[in-house]
Amino acid sequence: MAEKVTILIDGTVHEVECGTTVAAAVLNAGRSLFRRSVTGAGRGPLCGMGICYECRVEIDGVLHSRSCLVPCRSGMEVRTDG
Ligand code: FES
C-alpha cells in the first residue's frame, strides 16, 4: 500500500497517495476550475508538465504555483479560484 498524506484543498481535508501532484489531487477531489483568467474564464490543467501555466493555484501561501509540478506534502494548504 502506498503511503498517504493529508492536505487541505479550499479548506477541505483530502487524503492522497504520497507522490501525487497537487493538480492530480485537486482533480481527484472533483474540482476542474483551478483559477480564473483576467476575463473571469475558468482555467484548469492543460499540459500536465509545467509549460502552459493553466494549473496555477495557491500552495502554502505561494500564489501562482504550477500545481502539476508540485508533489503533495502532509499538511499542505491548496487554494483554487473555484
Ligand atoms: S498543467 Fe500546464 S503548467 Fe501545469
What does this protein structure show overall?
- With 82 residues, the protein is mainly beta.
- It has one domain: Ubiquitin-like (UB roll).
- Helix content is 9%, strand content 34%.
- The protein contains one helix and seven strands.
- It has one helix at 22-28; strands at residues 4-9, 12-17, 35-36, 42-43, 56-59, 62-66, 77-79.
- The strands form two sheets. A five-stranded mixed β-sheet has the order 2-1-7-5-6, with helices on one face. The chain has a two-stranded antiparallel ribbon with strand order 3-4.
- A hairpin with a 2-residue loop joins strand 1 and strand 2.
- The longest helix is centred in the first third of the chain and has 7 residues, at 22-28.
- It is globular, with a radius of gyration of 12 Å.
- Residues 45-48, 50-55, 66, 68 line the site of FE2/S2 (inorganic) cluster.
Short description:
The chain is mainly beta.
What is the total tally of β strands? 7
Bound small-molecule species: FE2/S2 (inorganic) cluster
Helix tally? 1
- Based on secondary structure, the structural category is mainly beta
N-to-C series of helices and strands = EEHEEEEE
CATH class: Alpha Beta
Work out the oligomeric state of the chains in this entry. single chain
Shape estimate: globular
Q: What fraction of the residues are assigned to beta strands by DSSP?
A: 25-35%
CATH architecture: Roll
Radius of gyration using CA atoms only: 12 Å
The CATH superfamily bears the name Beta-grasp domain
Distance between the termini: 31 Å
